[in-house]
Every structure is written in C-alpha cells, then in structure tokens.
C-alpha cells in the first residue's frame, strides 16, 4: 500500500507477508539502497557496485520488481534496461497482524538489524581514515527511557518530522548541500519487561 509522508514523498506500508519476506534479503536490501543512492541503474552496474554477478543482480532485481519495490526506468538506449526504486521509505505496523505477518515482520527487522551491524563494523574499521568532521559522527547510542505507548508513538512521529528534510534529499539530489553524504540510520527500540518491583 502506498502512502505519502508529511512532505508528500512516496512511502510504502508493508502489510503483505510475502512482500516483507521478499524484501528481507541482504542482497535485495543492498540493491534497493543502491538504486536510492545512485538513481536509475542497470543490472550490470548494480552487480559491480554490490559485488555480485550481473545474472544474480538481475534475478534479485526481478524479485524486487515482482513485489513492487523497483521498476524499469526509462532506457538510455536500446541495449540498457535500468531499474529504479519505486519508494524511498518503507514502514510496517504489527498492530492487528496475524502470525504470518508477525513472523515476516520479525524476519525483515532481523535482516535489517544484522545488515546495520555489519555496516557499523565497516565504519569502525575505516573511521580513522575519515575526514575529521565525520570521525565522531557514526557509532551507537544507548539510552534507557520510560514512556507510555502513546508517548513513544509521539516520539517516533517527532523524529520522523525532524528527519523529513534530510530524507527528501534522497529523491532530489539538487537539494543536497556540499559535503552531504549518505548516512544509514537504523533505529532499534526494544520495550523491556518490567522488573520485579513493577517498574
């Protein structure tokens, strides 16, 4: 299901378990991210960028297209068939889902978290070689807060609002100021069980 953000940018509500499982693949997530960053890209170019063969890139791009995550872009010539991402943002909600959707959501969240941890390790290995302004930018924050479900929902909406001008630059490269570069933000929130004291 397609939605719009507060700024009118397309985003997708993932409520189909089959689509969620299809998206929950490290190569497909990498290809989708590449299309968001690089724009329309052929399978050959995507394969080189992601480090896989053109045939494997073509297969995974077709799987992404089957579930509406990517589509064919306007061809530059008769030989090239570039692909582009359909939406830059996907959201999902487990509110009233059944067991199949809950399992698909868990799988997708696990793959995204594992991929984010892998990217963190890569960052840690190259952080010393980064320009000074960027060295202190990446990393992990670990906070404990007390909140009601309503307060946490409001917090998530407030964060999304703060990020909206930055995420809008995905679709509009001309809006990116000099020195801007892609930054992966993966937000993990884990409601903890109460302690014996009932907090």
UniProtKB/TrEMBL annotation:
Any one GO MF term held by the record is: DNA-binding transcription factor activity
Domain HTH arsR-type, first and last residues per copy: 18-113
- Which residues does UniProt call coiled coil? none
Put simply, this protein is called: Helix-turn-helix transcriptional regulator
């Amino acid at each position: 299901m397609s939605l719009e953000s507060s700024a009118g940018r397309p985003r997708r509500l993932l409520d189909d378990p089959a689509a969620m499982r299809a998206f929950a693949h490290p190569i497909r997530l990498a290809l989708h991210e590449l299309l968001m960053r690089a724009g329309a890209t052929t399978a050959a170019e995507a394969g080189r960028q992601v480090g896989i063969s053109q045939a494997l890139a073509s297969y995974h791009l077709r799987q992404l297209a089957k579930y509406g995550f990517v589509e064919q872009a306007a061809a530059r010539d008769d030989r090239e068939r570039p692909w582009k991402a359909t939406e830059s943002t996907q959201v999902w909600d487990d509110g009233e889902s059944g067991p199949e959707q809950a399992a698909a959501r868990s799988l997708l969240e696990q793959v995204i978290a594992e991929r984010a941890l892998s990217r963190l390790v890569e960052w840690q290995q190259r952080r010393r070689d980064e320009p000074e302004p960027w060295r202190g930018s990446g990393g992990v924050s670990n906070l404990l807060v007390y909140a009601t479900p309503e307060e946490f929902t409001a917090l998530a909406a407030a964060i999304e609002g703060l990020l909206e001008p930055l995420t809008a630059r995905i679709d509009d490269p001309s809006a990116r100021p000099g020195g801007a570069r892609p930054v992966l933000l993966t937000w993990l929130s884990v409601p903890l069980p109460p302690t014996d004291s009932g907090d």
